[in-house]
Amino acid sequence: MNMDKHLKVIDACRFCFMCRHLAPLALVTGKETDTPRGRALIADQIRMNKENLKNQDYVQALYQADLSGACRTHCVSSYDEVGLVLELRKDIVDAGVQPQAVKDFAQQFINPSFTITGEGDVLYFNHPCIKVHAPEMKAAFDKLAPKHKTIEGNDCGTALQILGYQKQADEAAEKFVKAVKESGCKTLVVPQPAAFHFIKSKNLLPDVKVLNTAEFLLTLDIPKKSGTLWPIDSDFLKNYQKNNAPRELLEKLGYKLKEFGITHEESYTCGEGSMTMVFLYPENVSKLVERVREFAERYEAGTLVVASPYTKLALRTYAPELDVISVEEAAAR
Amino acid sequence: MLLNRKSYLYQMIKSELTWIVGDDYVQSDDAEKLGHSIDYYWVPEVWHDRGQKLTGPDFIVHPKTAEEVSKILQVANTHKIPVTPWGGGAGSQGGALPIYGGIALDTKRMNKVLNIDPISMTVTAETGIIAQHLEWEVNKAGFSTMHFPASIACSTLGGFIAHRGTGVLSTKYGKIEDMITSMEVVTPTGDIINTLPVPRHASGPDLAQLFLGSEGTLGVVTKATMKIHPIPESRKFHAFLFSNMHDGLEAGAKIMTSRLNPSVIRLYDNPETAKLIKRVLGIDRVGSYLVFGFDGPEEVVDIQLEKACEICSEHGIEDLGTESGQVWWDNRYKFYYPPYMFQLPQAFGTLDTVADFSHIEAVYHAMHDAVKEQYPKAAYIGHFSHWYDWGCMLYARFIIEQPPQDPEEAVALYNRIWDAAIRAAISNGGVINEHHGVGLKLGRMMRDLYGPAFKVLEGIKKTLDPNNIMNPGKLGFSGY
Ligand SMILES: Cc1cc2nc3c(=O)[nH]c(=O)nc-3n(C[C@H](O)[C@H](O)[C@H](O)COP(=O)(O)OP(=O)(O)OC[C@H]3O[C@@H](n4cnc5c(N)ncnc54)[C@H](O)[C@@H]3O)c2cc1C
Ligand code: SF4
Description:
The complex is a heterodimer of chains A (about 325) and B (about 475). With about 325 residues, chain A is of the alpha/beta class. In chain A, about 50% of the residues lie in helices and about 10% in strands.
């Protein structure tokens, strides 16, 4: 089974409570299942008896995971509980026992096609999350770097990978890589942090410079700004890639940054690590957003700045009164 | 499991609970039951590991307010079903295990900081808040709770109150029972009561101290006000290596009886120095590692530190310096993360106890002998970590590398060692426990410890909880 790669993680996490304070979903549901310990216990039950893979209570718990990576970052030995859940999802899909909602949702990403438009040496990935849910992020990018090509059409396999559809994810990635290569561009800007992590961690494009938006904007000469922003870091950039470019950019631009919430360690992305929670488990997202709203109120946060279109969508949907902009919008102001 | 999940009574009770807290906050699925059937007690861990059936709750309920808690307890009284409060579930005594099924009342949604009073220097919070979150929120206002248990990341304020917990800096700032100034409690029959607003008075017996340490058997603590402190201007540490534990104990006692005011003293015996100080801090020496720290205004810290160093120098010591002390402080929680912490297949138990300076060393040796007598191959290590004007706490541990594979045999051996070690502690001037509590694990020894006085506790329990719904079978009280 795929999960066998992570048996050491099960041994470590199943009786360990030491990162529960950073498990975002558990903080709003109060559920033990939503912590690394809770999920490792489930994994252990499956390790002991493969039939448990069919238990829909367990399956649901594994699909609800926020995958923020905050716990892994905190863990002194960096046990990869996120990796364990992702492998378990592959086992679930292999067994064909994933929830119907997951099956339905995954369909839209299978067998994608991509088109390339525009002119320039730089290729911008207009990921569906941006195109459909946060077109203002692309508009801001266009303003700052008008001369570029655009690749769009679908996701590059990220969502499929996260949902446990390994084979289909690989096929999607292959098509994406082919399209990028055909563009002739040697720089690819990936504004969707999940997709950025997917491409980087798989080293899909060894001959292309793959940058997230902030990294790319750091190379431009953008007029200075003033004002105070409260950054909400991306799970994929901060916890997966250890990439601090969004904050570096904002500071370089002259913004004063104030720490949001009660600690830099907590994830306030409202489920970005899961990439799909806002579509599959919206009730959980609304609870996560409520915590952000509470902290914003209690600590009188002004404009929140996010690196992820996912977080922007979640906050806009459940807390429209909050003032939220993206990093590229902050740069284009 | 008390109730058949398919029965209509089960559905009736579930509906009643749902009316109180809402659909999302009553669970009865296998995943959540699993999470609430294992706490940090070794016995359910080994039970799970060996594929045995665990006892879980029938329902997990997550109230948001004291009023909701009150209504849940009323439902439980009506149907006469047990209620077990569950905070972080990180207690090591099996206290939060719903051993008779019924309702696991998970407190973690009651997690708000309600007020920070900078004039009286207190914070009022709901008790489901995780201690680290409370500390972070208080830090934002420029203060500290100074409550730094190794489980700060995983346990709740209510859990610490329920077990009379303690943190690394207890020697100066006290245990949780010294920190709390008042509490709101929902009694087993559903009354919402408050203890007096201040902890020092001559207005009758102290109700707050009755609920502190009651381990969910006398009600649910829903709010608490506790002291907060300024962030100290300076915090310094110093470490020494003593050739033997006895000298270290003498030095530690002298620091305390000289009425210096260290925030922490921690003395590791030779075996623990060899095992854990080496593994976690990388200090590879033979002897007993002692570290202490002071905090406050810099000049006060410096004078006290110097005096404490002088006391240590009276013995044959190796001075490891301030840096080694600081390394210990920086890594103080690392000891508790895998793989540094003991874990299965090992069997291990923390035999923590407390005694006065005249008895503590005898307690250490008596427990050692008791463990070795029961299982000669068991390792016995310990450190002395919470110091008082009159004595100190012993955090001894036994570790068995390969306990029996059969879970019943393993648990029987485990219990035998506990019985022998705790009885040895009691007969040498110690107590059952200093800060982890009693729970399921040590309940059977409460009568030994209290003697006839245990009847007083039983009488209080009966009066407050006539249907015995609150956490039955814990703290030595009768089962369900
Ligand atoms: C790695 C690790 C390190 C530890 N280090 C320390 C340490 O340094 N100091 C220390 O003191 N302890 C320590 N402990 C033990 C544990 O953290 C404490 O016993 C703590 O008090 C348990 O709190 P909890 O919220 O996890 O409670 P739980 O385990 O959920 O419950 C413990 C008991 O309290 C009752 N309870 C919980 N909440 C309430 C409430 N609101 N009202 C009434 N009853 C309630 C439960 O019914 C149960 O009987 C450690 C544990 C771990 C896992
Ligand atoms: S990730 Fe690390 S800290 Fe979290 S449960 Fe696992 S071992 Fe413990």
